[in-house]
Write a structure and sequence with these properties.
2 helices, rod-shaped
Length: 156
């Protein structure tokens, strides 16, 4: 059987005092160090998380600015292409109009020259016909009337 005597009580009191001393000397500082390390780890984790969030927001902002810049540059290029096409079309139309005007002027000039030449030929038809008749017949031949309708048909 188990006997309870004063040694047992002293051993129990010694053990309880030992636990309090151990708790006060070793466990509290160790727990403090553990809590301090846990706080350090938590702080660093929170800082890293905040840095990651900032980096993500900066990356998203950069992507948005890049997309916006890309859209703006595409719009600028498109506007410049449209402007160049319009200018090209305008210059082409001007060149066509200038060419048409020059061609019309040349046609008008040629028509005037044709009319002048035709009129000159009409006025000389009688003289030329008399010369040809004189050379063929051998005597002076005089034409009294010239039918200008026949001359016009021949010239056309």
């Amino acid at each position: 059987m188990l006997e309870f005597n004063a040694t047992f009580i002293i051993a129990m009191i010694s053990f309880v005092i030992f636990i309090f001393i151990m708790n006060w000397i070793f466990y509290k500082p160790i727990l403090g160090i553990i809590e301090e390390r846990q706080k350090f780890i938590d702080d660093n984790y929170n800082d890293a998380q905040n840095s990651k969030n900032k980096a993500d927001s900066l990356l998203q902002e950069k992507d948005e600015r890049l997309n916006k810049t890309l859209i703006e540059s595409r719009k600028i290029v498109s506007d410049k292409i449209n402007e160049a096409n319009e200018k090209s079309q305008s210059l082409t139309n001007q060149a066509k109009q200038t060419s048409k005007n020059k061609i019309d002027e040349a046609k008008k000039h040629l028509s005037e020259e044709e009319n002048q030449t035709t009129e000159a030929l009409k006025s000389n038809v009688k003289d030329i016909a008399e010369n040809i008749s004189s050379k063929i017949l051998g005597e002076n031949f005089h034409i009294a009337n010239v039918d200008y309708d026949i001359v016009n048909k021949v010239l056309k």
